[in-house]
Amino acid sequence: MRFCIRENCNNNLTSIVKNNTVVFRCNVCFEEYSLTNEDTLMIDEHFQENNTIHKHKTYLQNACHDDIAELVYKNCPNRGCTETIVKIIKLAESGQALYVCPTCRTQFA
């Protein structure tokens, strides 16, 4: 996840395609940022279009490392974990959301 670095903004950036190139744009001040080597490209990945369950499983296992995944305030259900901000993974057109704790990697719906 990236944030706008403009003074007094710090808003979350969203990825867009502009001139066949992916860029990050701030929805508040409309500042645009180019991709860096650290950015993970996982744009419009539709689970229904993939041809193997292995791809789904691998992506979900590594979702805790996705730095551009959307974050939400939600308590991790793992009793040993005190994390209150988790990553949300949206499963394409079904609209189902899966939450992943970045600290203990617990997945829950």
In short:
By secondary structure, the protein is mostly beta strands. It contains one helix and seven strands; from the N terminus they run βββαββββ.
Q: Termini separation (Å)? A: 21 Å
Mean pLDDT: 76
Q: How large, in whole angstroms, is the Cα Rg?
A: 15 Å
The CATH topology label of the largest domain is: N-terminal domain of TfIIb
The number of helices is 1
Largest sheet: 4 strands, antiparallel
CATH class of the largest domain: Mainly Beta
Structure write-up:
By secondary structure, the chain is mainly beta. It has two domains: 1-39, no CATH class; 47-108, N-terminal domain of TfIIb, CATH 2.20.25. It has one helix and seven strands. It has one helix at residues 53-62; strands at residues 13-18, 21-26, 32-34, 70-73, 85-91, 96-100, 107-108. Strands 4-5-6-7 form a four-stranded antiparallel beta sheet, with no helix packed on it. Strands 1-2-3 form a three-stranded antiparallel beta sheet, with no helix packed on it. Strand 2 and strand 3 form a beta hairpin. Residues 42-51 have low confidence and may be disordered.
List keywords for this structure.
109 residues; mainly beta; N-terminal domain of TfIIb; 2 domains; four-stranded antiparallel sheet; three-stranded antiparallel sheet; 9% helix; globular
Describe the secondary-structure layout:
Blueprint: E1 13-18, E2 21-26, E3 32-34, H1 53-62, E4 70-73, E5 85-91, E6 96-100, E7 107-108
Antiparallel strand pairs: 1-2, 2-3, 4-5, 5-6, 6-7
